[in-house]
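Tutorial, part two.
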Amino acid sequence: MKKKNIGSSFDSWLGEEGIREEVTATAIKRILARQVEAAMKEKNFSKAEMARRMHTSRAALDRLLDPEYEAVTLSTLRKAATAVGRELPLELAKKWVAGSETVSRPACRPCCALARQAGGLGNAAKCSS
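Running the prediction step on this input gives:
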């Protein structure tokens, strides 16, 4: 006999604790730092070369690559993406509803891989519009 899920989802719990947005932002920053580092390795760029291509300092690049440092600007992320030949797609998305909870956009766009890795609900959500 298969047991039903007991209790709330992880997203629900994060919401109840009032930390969903903070946790999601931290996870997304960590994922972006790993993606930049992976792209640098793919291109065989040293930190010095990457900083030169970004027109920034090695210290600024180190902050970008530090998964714990959350105060990275969009400008720095854009420069990093350009330096490794990537894009940084951003959008102001509508909220999505899964059951009775409102969550971030489901896994239907490139940014959704980030949402899934950051603890989002994936394909279980539906558009509220």
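The first strand starts at residue 96 and ends at 98. In part three we will examine how such features are distributed along the chain.
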